[in-house]
Please model this.
Amino acid sequence: MFIGLWLARKEILGLITSLSTLISNIQKVKIGNIAIEILQNRDISTELKQQFISLMLKDGKSTTFCCNRTDEIKGVTGNGTLFEVPFNQCDENSKNGIFTAPQSGTYFVTWKIFLQNITTQSEAIVQIRSSDKIFSFPVNNLSALKDNGNIVLSGSSSVKMCLADTVRLAVKVGTSKDSKTVHLKTSDAQFSGFLI
Model:
């Protein structure tokens, strides 16, 4: 009888542990979804986003990053040139828009860039470039998507990173047949992420 009770108690403890893990994972997903909404919301100021990110801590270290560009750069691409965006307003985990992972894991990364002066270019590629991988996000039929030569490109992806791996944002517009006329506007240039 005692063996039966001991086995039943062991199974109940196992179920409790499984349930606790499930609840913890559900909470992480909910927090992740809320974080995504906050980071992608245009109505929330950069300062508030950075304050939110500084509150998201794991194991005593910030596992988030947030970068912005505060001034326009002219003639960055348009002729197929790959341009790595040099963000100049970043938090402690990133420098010039290059995020260095403070711990291993999967990071959810979001980006938004505003390109101006698109003329004859018909294609673009946004890239997340990590230490050992390149994630490419092509945009076709650019001429149909642009509005008076302007377009906002945004997206997100999960990136598996090891401790001290880096990740940065790059964009390429057009081909060698086109001209290098595309500008990076600052109002919507953002690159951010967090450990999930």
User: Anything to note?
Assistant: The domain at 44-195 is CATH 2.60.120.40 (Jelly Rolls). Residues 45 and 99 are 21 Å apart (CA to CA). The longest strand covers residues 182-195. The two ends are 45 Å apart (CA to CA).
